[in-house]
Each structure stands twice: as C-alpha cells, then as structure tokens.
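Need a sequence for this fold. Nothing fancy.
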C-alpha cells in the first residue's frame, strides 16, 4: 500500500470552506470528501490565516478518537501556529486499512487548506505513533514526527533509513511499557544520522500532557530554525532554554543525578549554537566524575538488563503456550510468576524497581489484549480465549477482562459463559448499558431471558 501525499491547493474551495470555521475551537467531526462515514477532528489556531501557507500536524489516535488526540496539542498549536487534524477512523489494526483512510484524509485536507509543504508533521500515541512514523518513512514528505509511547512498526519497509529526511521527537513516561523501546528507537535513528530527541517524564502509557507536547514542539522549533524553515525568534529560543535549565536544576536538587545530567547534555546539544555554555559543559564533566553519579548510572544499567530478562521470560512463555494452546497446568505458571513478580517489584520501596514493575505488568497486559485482537481478526477463537483468560488472571476484579470474555463467548455461541462473565463484569462495576446493547456480538442474545435479567 502506498501513501499518497500531495499539497496541491484549490484556493476557491479553501476560501469558501475555511472562512466558515472558528479559530481556537475544537471541531470534533468533519466529513471527509468522497469517503462515506469517515470524519476528522480539526483545530485552527487563533493566528490561522487562510490566505497564507499553514503548518499542519496530522495526529493519529489509537482508538480513532479525534477530539482526544487533538487536545494535548492545542497549547503548542497556539504558541507555534499549527493546524491540527486527527482522523476519527484510523486506529490500532491492519495498516492497509489505516493507509487507505489516511490517503483520503490527505486528499481532503490538501484540496481544502493552504498547507506549507515544508511544514507537514505527523504525530501519534501508541499504535498511532507507529503509524505516524510509517507514514513519514513512506512519503518522505514529512518534516517531523512526534512519537508518543511507542516507536516503529515491525515492517522493515516502514523503518527510518538513510533516505529519511524528517526529525523525530519521542515522548514516553517512565512507567510506560514501551519506555526502554524508545531509547532503542533513538539508537536506530542515530545509526542513520536522523535528528532526534527522546523526552521522558513521570507517567504511564497514555497521551502525554500538554506541557510535554509543548517541550517536543520547542525542540521541533529549533530544528525549523536550523533548517531555515522558520525565521529564528531569539525570545522563543531563550525562553525554552531557561525552562530546560530550570528542569535540569530541579532534578539535580532532587538527587536525580543521572536524569539531571541527561537534561544538561540535552541543553548542550540543542543550545550551544545559540549561547556560550562553557560553564555548563564543565559542570557536567564534574558531575560525571562523582561516585554517586557513577553508582546511579550502574543501577540504571542493571535495571535495563533485568527488565529485558523478565520481559523475554514472559514473552517466551506466552509464545510457547499460545502455540500449544491453553496451558496444560491451567495457568499455574503464570499465577506463581505474577505473584512472585508483584511481591518483588510492585510494592518495592526502590522507586526505580517499582516503575520497572509497572512497565512490565502493563507490557504483559498489552501483550494479552493486542494478541487477542490479532487472533480475533484471524478468526482463531481458541487462541483469543487464551489471551483473554490471561488478561482475567492479571485483573480478576476489574470489569474489562470479563466484558472481553463475554464478547468472545458470544462469538463462540457459548451462552452459559457469556452470561457468567457479563454477570462478573457488572458485579465489578460495569454500568454502561448502552454500550452493552450496542456491542454487535451481544445482539443475537439480547432476547435471552438471562441476558435480559442482567440488563434489568
């Protein structure tokens, strides 16, 4: 599948359409031309001018929630004057479908708005992040990628290479399951001399808050200055420099030497062409000589190794059991290992180990959910059932695993287990009767007396 990106603009359409749209207002559903049922969310910044070329960010939300995808970007869009667009139809799933939806969205946007072909950006979260980078590689017409909470696809043809011309900024929480992956992303980009930055902060696997998105755009603005895409604004550079310096100083004050040094190194890399930073360079050299810094660095390195080993153990066991079918020991291995893991890491007083524990637990959760979706698309109910039962094992008192199991048993026409898990989902707090009625898998069973009793 090829991504087609053309910025040919029809000004007559542009002037009749965009003048009717309000600035600084999030519009959550606009119909894509010649695409039945496909819509997108749109945000035009206050300084948007339809008579001038505009910078744009195409945002990809993993569940197709355009409004949710745009919200974290609004502050940066207003500061740096970007049009924001987010499809309501691209989501985690087959890439060919998403590429087709994206092609139709591109055709609509570039025939409706006056877009600067040098200022086209893609962004996304989780699976949307992987899609955003794949589009940048395939079109070779994207100026920058903002990847949140995930790196690249596994498709070799969609990985950045020597022909890639975009800049890449990754954002990831230190409790995100893909935390370590994002550093491997930077290693890969460095191999091809692709300008990149990885920004970390304290959070789990979700869209970054606005202030972190703004940090990403501060960096992209420096790249735009460097590439001559935007005229340099000295006040903007100085403000971003001071903010980054304050952050690094606060980390050092909090005793986070390794993180502080990473931020100081980031400042040296990004701002040395704008300011004289000899004093800071010397400060960093002295910090790196300290025993406390070296010790903290060794601890960080040991956690990386430990996390890789545990992740490999879990994924290898999962692959072994999923290929053989449901575990013969009725998940005894998983019960024992998860209990042992939780005791060792989930309540550990060492914050670094505890955060590692959270990352790995969410990684196992995501492995079960994503594999289940893949097997459902392939029509393999047996393997999908194993995945959802593993999910239930991890979160036995939460409604979501039981709702998923009920959906699956409905597809398998197993009414007893359908009712059993719907009952559990409700008992653990599921209250969305409208969603239950509108879930297509349940439609054939809504007249069943036991299902009706649960609904009432």
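Here you go.
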């Amino acid at each position: 599948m090829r991504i087609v990106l053309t910025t040919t603009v029809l000004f007559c359409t542009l002037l009749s359409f965009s003048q009717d749209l309000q600035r600084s207002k999030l519009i959550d559903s606009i119909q894509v031309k010649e695409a039945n049922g496909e819509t997108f969310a749109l945000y035009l910044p206050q300084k948007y001018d339809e008579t001038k070329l505009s910078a744009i960010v195409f945002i990809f939300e993993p569940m197709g929630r355009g409004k949710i995808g745009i919200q974290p970007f609004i502050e940066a869009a207003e500061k740096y004057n970007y049009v924001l667009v987010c499809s309501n139809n691209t989501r985690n799933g087959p890439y060919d479908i998403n590429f087709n939806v994206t092609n139709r969205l591109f055709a609509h946007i570039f025939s409706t708005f006056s877009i600067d072909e040098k200022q086209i950006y893609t962004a996304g979260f989780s699976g949307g992040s992987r899609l955003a980078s794949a589009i940048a590689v395939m079109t070779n017409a994207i100026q920058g990628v903002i990847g949140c909470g995930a790196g690249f696809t596994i498709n070799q043809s969609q990985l950045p290479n020597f022909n890639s011309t975009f800049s890449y900024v990754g954002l990831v929480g230190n409790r995100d399951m893909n935390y370590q992956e994002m550093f491997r992303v930077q290693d890969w980009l460095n191999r091809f001399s692709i300008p990149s930055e990885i920004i970390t902060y304290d959070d789990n696997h979700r869209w970054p808050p606005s202030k972190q998105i703004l940090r990403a755009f501060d960096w992209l603005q420096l790249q735009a200055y460097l590439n001559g895409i935007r005229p340099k604004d000295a006040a903007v550079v100085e403000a971003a420099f001071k903010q980054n310096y304050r952050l690094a100083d606060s980390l050092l004050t909090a005793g986070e030497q390794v993180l502080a040094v990473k931020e100081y190194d980031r400042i040296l890399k990004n701002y040395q062409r704008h300011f004289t930073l000899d004093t800071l360079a010397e400060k960093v050299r002295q910090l790196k000589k300290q025993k406390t810094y070296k010790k903290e660095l060794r601890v960080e390195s040991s956690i990386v190794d430990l996390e890789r080993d545990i992740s490999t153990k879990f994924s290898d066991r999962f692959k072994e059991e999923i290929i053989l079918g449901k575990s013969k020991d009725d998940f005894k291995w998983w019960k024992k290992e998860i209990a042992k893991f939780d005791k060792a890491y989930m309540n550990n007083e060492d914050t670094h180990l505890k955060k590692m524990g959270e990352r790995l637990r969410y990684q196992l959760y995501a492995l079960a959910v994503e594999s289940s979706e893949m097997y459902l698309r392939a029509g393999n109910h047996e393997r999908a059932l194993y995945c959802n039962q593993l999910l239930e094992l991890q979160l036995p008192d939460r409604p979501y695993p039981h709702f998923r199991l009920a959906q699956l048993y409905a597809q398998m026409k197993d009414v007893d287990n359908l009712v059993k898990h719907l009952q559990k989902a409700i008992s653990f707090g599921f209250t969305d009767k409208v969603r239950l009625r509108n879930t297509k898998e349940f439609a054939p069973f809504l007249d069943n007396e036991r299902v009706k009793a649960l609904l009432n």
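For context: Strands lie at 26-31, 39-43, 54-60, 82-87, 115-125, 144-148, 167-173, 196-201.
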